[in-house]
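User: Quick sanity check before I run a bigger batch. Here is a single chain. Can you write out its predicted 3D structure?
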Amino acid sequence: MARFRTWVGIAVAGALGATLAGCSSTGGKRAEDARKVAAAQGRAAVDTPRWTFAMITHSGDGDTFWDIVQNGAKQAAVKDNIDFLYSHDDEAQQQAQLVDAAVDKKVDGIIVSLAKPEALKSALARAEKAGIPVITVNSGSARSKAFGALAHIGQDESVAGEAVGEELNERGRKKVLCVLHEQGNVGHEQRCAGVAETFRGSVDNLYVNGTNMPDVQSAIGARLQADPSVDAVVTLGAPYADTAVKARSDAGSKAEIDTFDLNAKVAAGLQDGSLGFAVDQQPWLQGYEAVDLLWAYKYNGDVLGGGRPVLTGPQIVTEDEAAELAEYTKRGTR
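Assistant: Done. Predicted structure follows.
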């Protein structure tokens, strides 16, 4: 695979190497991988107890990003002999209630995203009091340790935003529209602030209702029509990139569309030139490592990160890498 421009080092558990070693774009290798999976028949690679881990995220319905996180978590759960439970709610109080329910169920470990940290503080305190180990994932790295988590797995959102600002500078952009699709999400605010930190042009934030794609398209299109000087739009999630492309067409704008996160449509957009670049935080890896690290802690008392986040990104992905990544996005691992 072509060498990606990587902004940060990525700490991963040793067990991951064997999994990624099977990645290939050749048909023969894919067939071999499929044969191995079939032969394994979902059997665990360890003989540790059948622990139960619960993952509770702030995902809304139909968010493909979290499908990829789940794919990684489920694959690690099979390997580690884990009973994996997943639940989600994009309302912070309801997410906290789901954490409380996992504590009441006396699960053996909890994985949780902290998009709105304060709402989860009490529930995570209950988990700590109950002796349930917690790992935070994706968002909330700044509060993870204070809330008693063993580690945080994800990308540093400020660093990721700064990477975007630098990339936009290299592309000669002058005015950027940063589209925030979930008001109150600390990670989203950090991304746009990071862009503003390094970008030499101007950055305008646009808040939209991410649960209503027609409204998102209308809002972006209206802003592009009102301000033709906007020459780049940055969306904060892969599903919104395609919507921004449609909005650009509606507005008759020539602004470049760039996005955080990766999925099959984004990979295709990078290939056909409708998108400029994407920032990949490797959600499959976030799910896989969260489960694997909880298992390692239960089995051997191991913890990664040394008190700092275990970084899974960012990686700037352009047209040059899109064709190679397309194979992985189709199977739901990138």
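The chain is about 50% helix and 15% strand.

User: Great, the batch can go ahead then.
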